[in-house]
Amino acid sequence: MLSNAFTVLRRGEPAFGARAMATVSLGPGITKHVPNREPYKGPLKACILDWSGTTADAHVLAPAVVFVEVFRKFGVDITMKESRLPMGLRKDLHIAKILEIPSVQERWQRIKGRPSTQADVDAMFEAFVPMQCEVLPQYTTLIDGAADTVKLLKTKYNLKIGSTTGFTKVMVDILLEKAKEQGYSPDSSVAGDEVPNNMGFRPAPFMLYQNLCNLGVYPIESVVKVDDTVSGVGEGLSAGCWSVGVAGLSNYTDIDSLEQWESMPETERDERVQMSRDKLNSSGAHYVIDSIKDLPVVVEDINTRMRNGEKP
């Protein structure tokens, strides 16, 4: 018979990475354990990808143009730059954040004669959903290299692929259908309104965690999150996994149309991409890349770092 000084692990594997632990008594019946945990040494098991600006919809035009139209419908004009500032958030929260921009709130109060309220946010979001669903099919073209890169991640590196987004499920269903036609189908997809208790927002990690439940993946060190926004990078950091920012066609290139980008002088394009890099470099991301096509290099490097005992 074992004494009460022992803790017995029954049924299944021992705690992941467990080693011998130092113990300290904090008083009668209270024992403090100081584990000497063996770090996870790889490889990566899952890659969780964003949608707009990362795998599809270069420069994140789909939501930006609709936010402008929704505000116009409610009698207040906003700029594309203003519509982009909170990008990456769940769309109802995004509308609320736009209304917190001082220039927008000043315009709203001048026109409406009162501050905006939660009821205004709710009404605007209700209008936003059908408007976004109507135009979304126009903005579902995969970013160059996305399908081939995902295929490589799955075949060469044996990664499972998940996705998170600020879109709602009804919008994600459109994205999934159009992406499948172009050769991209994530193994798991979680929208903000699919997470219980209204917790499906960034930078909270719960959409990412739900993906890991769907995929059957742990530990968190075996996961990499890829996104073109600060809040999306923050989702990965909040979760405790590796986090990668994608700068080249991100929200922060701040364009109004693909035609504007195509006609833009190369020097201005370079300046905008550099601004995007700077924004993501300051986000806390472990890596910042220009294109999803750069991901295999990052995966190789993360696997090497983990073999050497590094953690996110």
Explained architecture:
The protein has 312 residues and is of the alpha/beta class. It has 2 domains: 46-60 and 141-307, HAD superfamily/HAD-like (Rossmann fold), CATH 3.40.50; 63-137, Orthogonal Bundle (DNA polymerase, domain 1). Helices cover 43% and strands 13% of the residues. It has 12 helices and 8 strands. The strands form 2 sheets. It has a 6-stranded parallel sheet, with helices on both faces. Helix 1 packs across helix 5 (118-135). The protein is globular, with a radius of gyration of 22 Å. Mean pLDDT is 92; it is low at 1-15.
Keywords:
Rossmann fold; alpha/beta; two-stranded antiparallel sheet; globular; single chain; 312 residues; 12 helices; disordered N terminus; 6-stranded parallel β-sheet; DNA polymerase, domain 1
